[in-house]
Structure formats: C-alpha cells, structure tokens
Amino acid sequence: MAGTLNKVMLIGNLGKDPEIKTFEGGNSLARFPMATTETYTNRQTNERVSQTEWHSVVLRRGLAEVAEKYLKKGDKIYVEGKIKTRSWEDDRGEKRYSTEIQVDTMTMLSTRRDDTSNSTPAEKPNPGLEKEEGDDLPF
Questions:
Q1: Is the distance from CB of 78 to CB of 98 less than 8 angstroms?
Q2: What is the DSSP letter of 129?
Q3: Of the candidates 57, 58, 75, 63, the residue with the CA atom closest to the CA atom of residue 105
Q4: Cα–Cα distances in Å, from 75 out to 19, 42, 82, 84, 109?
C-alpha cells in the first residue's frame, strides 16, 4: 500500500458536558472526554470484565455549536475523525503532550431529553425518536 491513513471511528458516551471556546471572528471549539467500553468474559474465571478507554474529543465550527446546544454528560454519540497530538511548554518550561480526536463527522445516538419531568409518553416532544427495546445499533 502506497499511502497512509489517520482515521478514527468511535461510539461512546460523553464524560462531561462540552466545554466551549469562542474565538474572534465567531469560530468556536468544543472539548469533552468520551468513554468507550469493551466488555468480554474472562475464560478462566467466567466473569464479565469491562475496560473503559477515555478519549479527548475536539469539535470545531458548526459541530461545536451543535455540541453546545444538544450534548450533555452521558449522551451517546458516534464520531469520525483523526488522531492529533499537540505539544507545548508548560509554566516550568517542560514539554507537554496531548493526544486528541479531531472530529469531522458526528451523529447523536441518544434520544432527546424530556425537559418536563411529569409528562406522559403522549406529551413527549418527538416521540418518534424513542429507542426501541433491545435496539442499540447506531443506524
């Protein structure tokens, strides 16, 4: 193969609400931690084992605005992007590194939140977006 590829695809949950930065000129940036969890059965002990990996996610421009409006801690999302490592010098002059997922595409997988705590299913906004039992596929 004659080329290279830097592509990441993740389905996971937000570890906290997105932090938004707005720059001069109106551009914005959103950052948040995202957890992906792998679950398997240990063959020796027959116990279920879960391993969670945390990713630092960065969204720019329009995606950052969507994240600011609609995403909250715990929401499930699908993202596509690339891995990017940044470096800088801290206050003590030491070189620091950060590896991030820079997102190009995002799909929200959680259902919409119901802002009224005592509504019945018929009163829910957009009941057609409710998740069917046993259906955890992203499409």
A1: no
A2: G
A3: 63
A4: 15, 29, 21, 23, 8
Q: Tell the residue number behind the tokens 């240990």, with chain if given.
A: 42
Chain segment 72-105, per-residue pLDDT in tens: 999 999 999 999 999 999 999 999 999 999 999 9
Domains for the chain: give ranges and CATH numbers.
Answer: 8-129 (2.40.50.140)
Rg, C-alpha atoms of the chain: 19
d(CA 127, CA 122): 7
Separation between Cα atoms, residue 28 and residue 35, nearest integer Å = 23
| Strand pairing report for 48-60 and 8-14 | unpaired
State both tokens at 138. 């992203």
Looking at the DSSP bridge assignments, the partners of residue 85 are 99
pLDDT digits (tens, 9 = 90+) for 6-62: 999 999 999 999 999 999 888 999 999 999 999 999 999 999 999 999 999 999 989
Query: Do 22 and 83 contact (CB within 8 A), yes or no?
Result: no
